[in-house]
Amino acid sequence: MVARVYVTLKPGVLDPAGKAVENSLHALGFTQVGSVRLGKYIEVQLPDGNPTEARAKVEEMCRKLLANTVVENFRVELG
Amino acid sequence: MKIGIVVFPGSNCDEDAFHVAGQVLGHQSQLLWHKERDLKGSELIILPGGFSYGDYLRCGAIARFSPVMEDVAAFSRKGGPVIGICNGFQILTEAGLLPGALLQNGDRQYSCRDVTLRAERTRSRFTAGLAPGDLFRIPIAHGEGNFFIDDEGLKRLEGEGQVAFRYLDNPNGSRADIAGIVNASGNVLGMMPHPERNAEPVLGNADGRRILASLLS
To answer: Please, are residues B42 and B16 in contact by the beta-carbon 8 Å criterion?
Structure first.
């Protein structure tokens, strides 16, 4: 089983790298682009098993290491 | 005083801190490899600057799980003094020993230059030797020094006198120009600037010595 983890900056937290990408998209002529926010995508390989338990484990991994919950949110998808 | 300086893989200011604490300020300083489970009788711990674990995932995120950090956390919970400089500050916020987080600089530049710091009034022992309003020229060298804390957290820092240093000319977008803070009990301090890099006149100015003399007293 693979857990797909999306880590994103909380709303209101400044994202200078996202701003740089946004400016570059504007410079390329994509003038319709609003704001751009960068995040992280992490794949975690797990043994097949109970999805509820797996999700709880991965959420614990997020709180302890994969995300800094002071400034980041996370979302977990199992597949 | 016996001062322990933790060496993580990727630390690069450990020898500077070791030299200044020992040779310049006359303390007994010792390096502590991050895998050690013993602070070897250290009475004050410094987490030095650098790029521990290559800054993978987030600056300081991996270093906080080094074996020695359990002992550092326990030492600080008992009131032991702990100082984090630059990457050390990032590690302390990741470990939850200091509030807030350090984000990428607002201008996306790695900034390596001297800045002017102002000492603020705190109840912490660390700043007891500094007069509030004192100014210092101190080097900074970081890409992620943009101190962030939510509104409520900022109110608490300001209200409880936990801001130790502020930039006069904010180089990185930090909230409220914050360059260094202490925890609520005043025994853990984190700062982005590097006082250990200019603690002797031969290095241009010795303002760092004035700060470290207070922090390590």
So the answer is: no
